[in-house]
Predict the 3D structure of the following.
Amino acid sequence: MSEPSVAPQKPRSLAGDAWRDLRRNPIFWISLVLVVLVAAMAAFPSLFTANDPRDCVLARQHAGPSGGAIFGYDFQGCDTYSRAVYGARASLLVGALSALGTGLIALTVGMLAGYFGGWVDAVLSRVTDVVLGIPLLLAAIVLLKRVNSDSSTVRIAAVIFVLAALGWTTAARVVRSSVLTAKEQDYVAAARMLGAGNGRIMFRHILPNALAPAIVVLTIALGSFIAAEATLSFLGIGLKAPTISWGIDVDAGRVHMRESVTPLLVPSAFLALTVLAFIMLGDAIRDAFDPKLR
Amino acid sequence: MTQSAVRPVPATPTPPGGHLLEVRDLQIEFRTNEGVAKVINGVSYHLDPGETLAVLGESGSGKSVTAQAIMGILDTPPAHIRSGQILYQGRDLLTRSEEERRQVRGKEIAMIFQDALSALNPVFPVGWQIGETLRQREGVSRTDARRRAVELMDLVKIPGAAKRLGDYPHQFSGGMRQRVMIAMALALNPKVLIADEPTTALDVTVQAQIMDLLADLRRDLDMAMILITHDLGVVAGVADRIAVMYAGRIVEHADVRSLYRTPAHPYTRGLLASIPRLDVRGQALSTIRGLPPNLMRIPSGCPFHPRCPYAQQVCVDEVPRDLALGEGRTSACHFAQEVRDDSAR
Amino acid sequence: MFRFILRRLLQMVLAFFGTTLIVYALMFAGQGDPIQALAGERPVTAAQRAYLTEKYHLDATGVGGFFYRYFDYLKNLLQGDLGQSLTGRQIGDILAAAWPVTVKLALIAMAVTVVFGVTAGVIAGIRRASIFDNSTLVLTLLVLGIPTIVLAPLAQYLLGVKWQLFPPTAGAEPSLYALLLPGIVLGSLSLATALRLTRTSVAENLRADYVRTARSKGLVKRRIVSVHVLRNSLIPVITFLGVELGNLMSGAIITEGVFNIPGVGFNLFRGIRTEDGPLVVGIVSVLVVVYLVSNLVVDVLYAVLDPRIRYE
């Protein structure tokens, strides 16, 4: 079908168009504010609460709100709100570092597979298929069962390692396909004819094209990594006390929901809102960059 | 100024029985977030029984949109038909109900498309797709529909038709796929066949075969055909008349012979000059300077004036009317006479 | 078609060896004391130690010993002999009792997904940008953004404990009614994904060229949507549902744990909590096989549904 030519008056960049769409999208602003809020909580928890989350007195078990503990106390007699605030740090740390690790693996694999093609592509794509075929939760259970240390640094590192090792496949595919597209562009051929080496072409010309779609995928992945960390901690194989994690607190709150439900609801709400914020943010950015389906 | 020598008259006198199909002063715009694109700006053309009309123009000139408006398969929105009439056997299709229009589609007016691979449903066998029209529209039984599908595939010269009934579109070559498309369009013996760039997606050798097939079928089945194309070379052997479109208007309208010999619109002249000629050596290929207009901001006056070598102040100020040049020819150019005279030289 | 299935079957066998090898290696290789690794932090009795040593041929050493033990484990796995859990029960028996419950739960979740997710997805796809479409988009975003560990206890609290519409926990011999709420919770994520997938697929297919062709054939709109568009749109959806059924059977760990449903996921949940290594390895091995088989079934299904794949 020959579309009528509705060429705009002045050429606009894709990023410019996307930004114009984003600015008008309330979901983008809501999720951005939430993300910034959680990030601030992770960095400076004491700005949000004066209470020590580890100051637990059994006598205050399930006590109502008092003195800064706006949501009362949990089964152990700890400040529910303060624990939820301090829980942001582990969640965000795991989420961000897993996403970073995932991004590095995905960019490397996707770039090599897409740029060199041939057997490199064949091997890397098969590996990607296999890793994609492994159910994440089951594999994480198997891997994390190997970690017997109770040191919180080791456990956090282990969870990050596991999530990054299993979670890079989708992003790698996205990178690979955008590299394939970028590789065919005229300016890449021009750069090659001007004598640019593989490394220069990859970093200067192709990487910028692969970056935007990868960042979108990783923003959404960041949210699901936070959810995965909470799930693993909930199961008892992710982070462990004394690390404060929403997953651990949701599990504890769940067990005692009949006595008091706030210790379940508060960390649940923090966790759900954080995950939602990242997913919505990624969704909004993707929609802005890919206006095909509006 | 010899302009006064040419009197504006109605485009073509209507024959006593009326035309088989006539588009009158059609205006269509596309309303998008970016703004309103005026895609069709007063198109008029007609088709008589048994003839072939070629509609020629660049992509974006509105030739396909007009055809889709005739078929009633424009997506509204974003398309919006502002005014005009589409008369089929004397009755305006645009005022009829969707149900009545559906009855016309396929049965009276059928259409084939440029890219047969995407125009055919990928998950159904071709025999099923050809037979579906018969089963759904005529209530033909499954067995009869299949037999008729084989006949139709024979008719469009698909070798081993009976054996290929169960094959899927992607298993055919490009040319064969277009033949399947044609067979499907012919299922209900339509009186008008609209072929929208039927050969654009094909190899040059296959193009000729498909054009020959269409010409033969049109003659044998006594249909009328609207052939939409951007390729002047395709038109010459097949069409009786040519309507040249630019920026949603018919700018020139003539029988094939006159149009090729003495084009009377600068745009047509430009198009003809840009065909590579084998008989003239060492001649630089000429092109039309500039770009097709932005349909959201069509130039004032004659929309072709920014690209026109004949342009004068009047072209910027006044929209040219269709000027009759005799023998049913018209040209929407203030200087139609001069252009034709220049061409004759 | 036959060659296609054969090729996929071979791929599956390879994936099977690969995945089980990884699972096995991760559980046993490079451990100071593999038995202690299986048992975690629990003390191991002499009887358990003797049983595990014999069971996994832990007396053989080196790389050869590792592969010897791996093939032994495979042989047992294929024969359905998964050994004993640390509690002394046969893992095969535990799974035999647990499967029917898990399958029931997965089927409820699948039914919820198909009835609500796919239907709503088709409607949303046809009426794109309508109020219905926009509200389903927001709702699915919420569901996708709320982790199961939040959704399951929340549903349990609100619908089970507070309003008492459903039994909050299922118990030993769960009735279909008791499985309904967990089934909905389990299915909600697939529902949201299926809805979005269906919507996108329908919307894309509605704009396909073949729809224009079908219209120019003079077919009624209902037929164009219900035959031409749906047949194409549902290919990715059905594929997704197939994969999802495999996921639902292996992925009910949280839901079964929270609602106390004695299915496979619950036993895995308990195995993790009680640090019962052999139970975890046994269940994970079986679930990996289930997962691989369901992926194979999906691939074949895809080929059946899409002629373009079938005749490649």
Summary: The interface with chain B takes residues 1-9 of chain A (CB under 8 Å). Confidence is low (pLDDT under 50) at residues 1-11 of chain A.
